[in-house]
Design goal:
The chain starts with a helix and ends with a strand. The protein is α+β, with helices and mostly antiparallel strands and 74 residues long. It has a 3-stranded antiparallel sheet with strand order 1-3-2, with helices on one face. The longest helix is centred in the first third of the chain and has 22 residues. The protein has one domain. Helices cover 39% and strands 19% of the residues. The protein is globular.
Length: 74
């Protein structure tokens, strides 16, 4: 009985992570980088990309190199 429940939970978690991977598929990194988070956030709402799709959200992420990178997503 415990093995059946454990297998069911594992299968359910596998299905849930598949949805997460698909939902994050519409995120792109904008070319270039920024020295500060403020500079990245100023460009975020106004950036234009040559990529199919409409992007409604932006996020500035600091990478290990200390620079900020702009990501667009739906």
């Amino acid at each position: 009985m415990r093995k059946t429940v454990a297998a069911g939970v594992l299968a359910f978690c596998g299905l849930m992570t598949t949805g997460v991977g698909i939902s994050n598929a519409d995120e792109i990194q904008v070319e270039g980088n920024y020295a500060t988070q403020a500079a990245c956030e100023v460009d975020g709402p106004h950036v234009e990309v040559n990529h199919p799709g409409t992007f409604t959200h932006f996020q500035c992420v600091q990478h290990p190199d200390g620079l900020w990178y702009l990501y667009l997503s739906n």
